[in-house]
Amino acid sequence: MVRGNHYSMDNFWIRLSAWTLAFSFVFGMVFGLFFIASVPFWLLWNWLIPSIFGLPSITLLQAFGLWLFLVLIRSTKFNYSKTFNNTQEVLNQEDLEWDNLFNQIKKNYMA
Length: 111
Prior knowledge:
There is one protein chain. The longest helix has about 50 residues, at about 1-55. The protein is about 85% helix and about 0% strand. With about 110 residues, it is mostly helical. The protein folds into two domains: about 1-75; about 75-110. The mean pLDDT is about 80.
C-alpha cells in the first residue's frame, strides 16, 4: 500500500515537471521572438530617429509595441487600388455632393 501512494506521488511530480518544462519552453520562445524582433528595431530607432526628427529614445518594451503595431497594420487586407479607382470614378461625376463622396470612401474603408 505504501508503494501505491509512492507511485502516484512520483506520477504527480513527473506530470508537474512536464507541464513546467512545456510552459517554460513556450514562454522562452515568446521571449525569443520578442528579443529577435524588437532589438534591431529598438537600436535603429534610438540611433536614427532622435537625431533626425528630435523624437525621444524608446525602451525595448516600447520598441516591441511599435513593432507589433506595424505587423498588425501590414497584415490587413486593404485594397488601395480599389479605393483609389472608386474615388476617381466618383470624382468624375459632375453632380456629386460631398456627402456622397464621403459615403463612398467610408464604404471602402469598412472591414
